[in-house]
């Protein structure tokens, strides 16, 4: 899969993407990442990418032409059919389902904004979708682009060592993760649940499902409303509510 990011801070995106799972995927050519700086598509002496908002008010707005030409360059370079997504506080909230669907694309162009936003005509004419991280404010789209790239990359075939890992993720099954423990067996008198030391794999799987259901019920009951539980899951959740 090919990612292209339109950004005034290209090294912020390209450098961060070299770390961890995304870095490995780039190394193994499962993913390619190209960055495009609108500043490189300006024609004036001062390389102007922003200007004052018509109507007045706080801050600056990113100009249409440098953004348009940067996206055009990314599209021309790839020559593939692709989707252009503007990362913005006005966008549709990113979910695991949205990332899953996007992971089937062969190219995704991500537009990271700065300042107060982009000229509305660029959003209308040049972008296909608008995505948001959620209802809080950050100062630009670069971290959002990295989140999207990371979230999609780990869904691609042959990226995670354990092929099952992405499937086992919390949020792909609609539940929170079960608790995890590693050595030592006792920390300040706190032990590890006996069942995890039992070697009984069926019993361990049942305990983990019960914990995942119970924690989701305690911490994120909204997630359970979206989900239909099997008879076994209903029974495990009932046990959790009784005891834990
Ligand atoms: C909503 C705040 N705006 C009102 C004056 C100003 C403003 C602040 C920060 C406009 C744009 C930004 C930059 N934000 C992003 O680029 C961004 C973002 C976000 O702030 N919240 C959630 N998701 C995203 S994705 C990109």
Mean pLDDT: 96
Query: Helix coverage percent of residues?
Result: 25-40%
Could you say how many structural domains there are in total?
Answer: 2
Strand portion, in percent?
Answer: 5-15%
CATH superfamily of the largest domain: SPOUT methyltransferase, trefoil knot domain
Structure annotation, total helices: 10
Largest β-sheet summary:
5 strands, parallel
- Here the CATH topology of the largest domain equals Alpha/beta knot
Q: Report how far apart the termini are.
A: 44 Å
Order of helices and strands: EHHEEEHEHEHEHHHHH
Which strands sit side by side, in order, in the main sheet? 2-1-6-5-7
Shape: elongated
Question: How many strand elements?
Answer: 7
Give Rg in angstroms: 23 Å
CATH-level-2 architecture of the largest domain? 3-Layer(aba) Sandwich
Structural class: alpha/beta
Residue stretches low in confidence (pLDDT < 50, at least 5 long) are none
The top-level CATH class of the largest domain is Alpha Beta
Q: What's the multimeric state?
A: single chain
Describe the structure.
The chain is of the alpha/beta class and 244 residues long. The chain has 2 domains: 2-153, Alpha/beta knot, CATH 3.40.1280.10; 168-243, tRNA(m1g37)methyltransferase, domain 2 (Trp Operon Repressor, Chain A). The protein is 40% helix and 14% strand. It is built from 10 helices and 7 strands. A 5-stranded parallel beta sheet has the order 2-1-6-5-7, with helices on both faces. Strands 3-4 form a two-stranded antiparallel sheet. Helix 4 links the parallel strand 5 and strand 6 (107-112). Helix 3 runs parallel beside helix 5 (120-126) and helix 8 (201-219) packs across helix 10. The protein is elongated and about 70 Å long. The structure holds ligand 9D3. Residues 87-89, 113, 116-117, 132-134, 136-141, 144 line the site of ligand 9D3.
């Amino acid at each position: 899969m090919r990612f292209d990011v339109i950004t005034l801070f290209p090294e912020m995106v390209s450098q961060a993407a070299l770390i961890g799972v995304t870095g490995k995927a780039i190394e193994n050519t499962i993913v390619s990442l190209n960055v495009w700086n609108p500043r490189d598509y300006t024609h004036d002496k001062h390389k102007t990418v922003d200007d004052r908002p018509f109507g007045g008010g706080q801050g600056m707005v990113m100009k249409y032409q440098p953004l348009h030409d940067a996206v055009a360059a990314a599209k021309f370079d790839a020559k593939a059919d692709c989707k252009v997504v503007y990362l913005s506080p006005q966008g549709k909230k990113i979910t695991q389902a949205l990332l899953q669907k996007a992971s089937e694309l062969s190219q995704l162009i991500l537009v990271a904004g700065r300042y107060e936003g982009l000229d509305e005509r660029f959003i209308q004419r040049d972008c296909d979708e608008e995505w948001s991280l959620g209802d809080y404010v950050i100062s630009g789209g670069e971290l959002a682009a990295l989140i999207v790239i990371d979230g999609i990359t780990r869904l691609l075939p042959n990226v995670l060592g354990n092929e099952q890992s992405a499937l086992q993720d919390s949020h792909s099954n609609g539940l929170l993760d079960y608790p995890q423990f590693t050595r030592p067996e006792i920390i300040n008198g706190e032990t590890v649940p006996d069942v995890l030391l039992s070697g009984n794999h069926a019993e361990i799987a049942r305990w983990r499902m019960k914990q995942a259901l119970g924690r989701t019920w305690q911490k994120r009951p909204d997630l359970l409303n979206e989900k239909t539980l099997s008879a076994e899951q209903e029974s495990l959740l009932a046990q959790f509510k009784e005891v834990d």
